[in-house]
Design a protein that fits this description.
heterodimer, A: mainly beta, Methylamine Dehydrogenase, Chain H, Immunoglobulin-like, eleven-stranded mixed beta sheet, 8% helix, B: alpha+beta, five-stranded antiparallel beta sheet, 15% strand
């Protein structure tokens, strides 16, 4: 290990010196000398940014929403991880969102946000994101910026090459990063080649966004890393990168880096649809959670699904082809025309670009070098369109502008390289600070890039900001790409570890953003449609508090007759109907979190009183001049006590 | 209008006042389709302003929740809740307007000159009475405060302006006629025009 890493650092130094003598390592800031730069990122107080940027949270499991060009953080959307601040995953309504076949999984690793598209253009309806750890995909509704749906992926060992939409959001995909025994069983890890499989999943997206697994494709046991669907002429195909075609299970940093070429798997999903309608699939038992949040009842439900349709390439000729691609490719990125498929061979100095039309010709002529598990491997020279030579080291990911240029991140050499699609000529390079992973141009993986800015999502921060101890926020950098030369404009910190991001012009989202939930549409089973209906009901040990909030009191705000051992459900309905007037509900000693209830919404906190006494609760969101007075008491009597259940608001007292 | 044809001129003299009188009645019909008065509160934290519309028969806001939001603001200083159901004027004003429309139709059939003048003067009297009534309501809301109000500001008046613009604590309140208010106002000069044409030689 040591010798390997020192070898690679030596290599980096040598290559940096040899190839990139123009980039001066002594210039630390990236040369912010251009006096126009501050005005380019300045968004005056009260003004809005031009773009939304959705950044995955990586190990935070969430999505961070930033404005561009300012870089300002606008919101964090809880997706795969509990978020105590918003009660997400803690209140009774959202707990089912995090249900899986493994039970409640309160955390995930969210990597790749992907906006929905219509005709290959981002349309601002939804954003999808993968959960890498316990394989899941989520859909976020962009009228509310709330997670609306989470679907678990069966037969997957880690959902990395996901969600990557087709051009009309017919499908999003979910390719497994880790191959696993299929079906899961107790086998020796060394039986990898024999027992393990890699599963690619196609998820149908309905008109209302609802997700459903259409089919899965059983592939050899490789690691499926990233994906992108074709567009325009290549619409109907989806491409997945692979690594570990060596099929190793230990010390992969060495053992999975031996082959000169791995593959890009090209999937003809229109063909898959034909095979499905011909019944050429196997209906295989499975167990996976489908969780849906209903905006009217403000409540999520989790349903376990029990089977999935699996296609096997041996039985389905023409469904899958392998395109040899150097070397452990990370991103696979399709240019806006749909003709070029860029393989970012992360252990290579070159970028390999395949041609979609050459691929079709090769398939027609059967120019195959071999077959693996019924999958033809197309001859490299019959599919490759060009190579960007010695562009840098460690290419990870490529995005496109609207002018026929591509931009590739190079992790090892810590830079973004601009090159021409077609001539494969390097046009410009810009340093990043430091070690860039993915990059993002608004619309940069769609048919219509919106250009103008590029964001580099960096893996290492070090000295870019005031130090905050050993752990630092990951840093993003904004570049102006409107001219011939990329210009570094801005550094800004992000939440978690953004892997990939999506950008979209604000006017595709802003007009549809909801301000509150109309109270008359509230269908929560425990809603309270006005203060007069507020009450407390006992059902055995369960006490249901039908509570309302409006500036600036709870109704009721005094409750007696609760006993140790009870389960008290506070169903709090926020009667407000004004933008940005949530109320909080914080209960002393609660073992979960607070509630943060949006206007028109009902949320439920479960509280299990442990000791007798009188305990306060209060509003935790500063709501008005009398917010500090928004408080109440609940009296807890011993088990078996005869204190009657009563509740009070001002002069009004009720007893059940 | 200065026609040489005497016959035609006589005809015009009969028809124009009738049409004008009907128009006055028609202008009042707008009161049932558009708000007649608008009060808007502006403050930095209410970027678009909070707009309340007074109709002949109801009170509305720029959103269904506006009235609730105004009431929430008002309760801090102890102002009464605005509950449209408890404002009797909203119930009987429509009948007065129905009456005025009926009179306009009747007078245009009868086509006697003093009746046109009478209608216009009656309408002025009603408008003055209506505005006075509006002032009394505003005065009551602005001064008749709950003694248990959480926030008491000595000497402060929360009464919105009858017409125009005024600072009320942290708000700027504007009060102006809205579309049907202007149209109903226009019915008065139109009625006088009927009177004038009828008297023209
Ligand atoms: Cu509150």
């Amino acid at each position: 290990m040591n010798s390997f890493s020192s070898y690679s650092s030596l290599l980096i130094v040598l290559l940096s010196a040899a190839l990139f003598s123009c980039s001066n390592p002594g210039v630390k800031t990236g040369g912010v000398l251009d006096m126009d730069n501050p005005s380019k990122v300045y968004v005056a107080p009260g003004e809005h940014d031009e773009f939304y940027a959705f950044m995955s949270g990586g190990f935070s499991g969430q999505i961070g929403v930033h404005g561009l060009p300012s870089g300002r953080l606008l919101r964090i959307i809880p997706v795969f991880s509990v978020d105590a601040e918003k009660g997400y995953g803690f209140n009774e309504e959202t707990k089912p969102m995090l249900n899986t076949s493994f039970g409640f999984v309160p955390w995930d690793d969210s990597h790749h946000p992907e906006l929905s598209q219509t005709n290959g253009e981002t349309d601002g309806r939804w954003i999808f994101i993968n959960g890498n750890n316990t394989p899941r995909v989520a859909r976020i509704d962009l009228t509310t910026f709330e997670t609306a749906e989470i679907l678990e992926i069966p037969n997957s060992g880690g959902n990395h090459s996901s969600p990557f939409t087709t051009e009309n959001t017919e499908y999003i995909v979910a390719g497994t990063r880790f191959s696993v025994p299929y079906p899961q069983k107790d086998v020796a890890i060394s039986s990898y080649e024999e027992n393990f499989k890699g599963m690619l999943t196609f998820i149908k997206v309905g008109d209302e966004g609802e997700m459903d697994i259409a089919f899965q494709i059983l592939l050899p046991a490789f690691d499926y890393d990233l994906a992108h669907s074709g567009k325009g002429k290549s619409h109907g195909w989806t491409f997945f990168t692979t690594y570990n075609t060596e099929q190793k299970t230990t010390l992969l940093e060495v053992n999975a880096s031996q082959n000169d070429k791995d593959f890009i798997a090209a999937i003809n999903w229109k063909k898959a649809e034909e095979y499905i309608s011909q019944g050429k699939f196997k209906e295989v038992p499975a167990n996976y959670a489908h969780n849906v949040y209903d905006e009217k009842s403000h409540t999520a439900t989790s349903t376990m699904k029990k089977s999935v349709k699996v296609l096997t390439p041996e039985d389905c000729p023409g469904l899958v082809y392998f395109l040899p691609t150097p070397k452990s490719p990370h991103g696979v990125d399709v240019d806006p025309t749909g003709e070029y498929i860029v393989g970012n061979g992360k252990l290579s100095a070159d970028l390999t670009i395949h041609s979609f039309s050459k691929m079709l010709t090769a398939i027609e002529n059967e120019s195959f070098e071999k077959e693996i598990a019924g999958i033809p491997v197309i001859k490299f020279e019959e599919v490759v369109a060009g190579v960007v030579k010695d562009a840098g080291l460690g290419p990870l990911h490529t995005e496109f502008d609207a002018k026929g240029n591509a931009y590739t991140s190079f992790f090892i050499t810590s830079e973004v390289v601009k090159w021409n699609v077609g001539t494969w000529e390097v046009l410009d390079r810009a340093s990043t600070f430091y070690s860039v992973g993915h990059i993002m141009i608004p619309g940069g993986d769609s048919k219509k890039p919106q250009g103008k800015y590029l964001v580099a999502l960096n893996k290492i921060t070090k000295d870019r900001y005031l130090p905050t101890g050993p752990e630092l926020c990951h840093s993003a950098q904004l570049y102006d790409i409107s001219g011939d030369k990329m210009k570094l404009l801005l550094d800004f910190p992000t939440q978690g570890e953004p892997h990939y991001a999506q950008g979209i012009s604000a006017d595709r989202i802003k007009p549809n953003s909801k301000k509150f939930y109309p109270i008359e549409e509230n269908e929560h089973p425990f809603r309270t449609m006005g203060e007069k209906e507020s009450r407390v009901e006992r059902e055995g040990n369960n006490v249901h508090v039908y509570m309302t909030t409006i500036r600036s009191h709870f109704a009721p705000d005094n409750i007696e007759g609760v006993k140790v051992g009870d389960k008290v459900y506070f169903h709090v309905t926020n009667l407000e109907q004004d933008w940005d007037v949530p109320h909080g509900f914080a209960m002393m000693g609660a073992n979960n979190a607070e509630l943060l209830i949006m206007p028109g919404q009902t949320e439920t906190l479960l509280w299990e009183p442990k000791f007798e006494g009188v305990y306060p609760f209060y509003c935790s969101d500063f709501c008005s001049a009398l917010h500090q007075e928004m408080q109440g008491y609940i009296r807890v009597s011993p088990k078996g006590s005869s204190v009657p259940l009563l509740w009070r608001l001002g002069e009004d007292e009720f007893e059940s | 209008m200065q026609s040489d044809n005497v016959g035609k001129s006589m005809e015009m003299k009969n028809i124009i006042p009738r049409i004008l009188m009907l128009m006055s009645g028609l202008l009042l019909v707008s009161l049932f389709f558009f708000p007649m008065w608008n009060i808007t509160l502006y403050a930095p934290q209410y970027p678009g302003g909070v707009a309340m519309y007074i109709w002949i028969n109801k009170i509305s806001g720029d959103t269904p929740a506006t009235l609730q939001n105004i009431n929430i603001l008002n309760h801090y200083v102890g102002m009464k809740y605005i509950v449209p159901e408890s404002i009797p004027e909203l119930k009987y004003f429509p009948y007065i307007i129905y009456g005025m429309i009926a009179l306009a139709v009747l007078f245009s059939i009868i086509n006697i000159r003093p009746l046109y003048l009478f209608w216009g003067l009656l309408m002025i009297a009603l408008a003055v009475a209506g505005l006075y009534d509006f002032y009394l309501w505003e005065y009551d809301y602005g001064h008749n405060l709950d003694p248990k109000a959480p926030i008491k500001i000595p000497e402060a008046s929360f009464q919105p302006p009858l017409i125009g613009k005024k600072h009320i604590v942290n708000f700027i309140a504007t009060s102006y006629p809205a579309l049907s208010g202007y149209l109903a106002g226009l019915s008065i000069p139109v009625a006088f025009a009927a009177w004038w044409f009828k008297g023209k030689k």
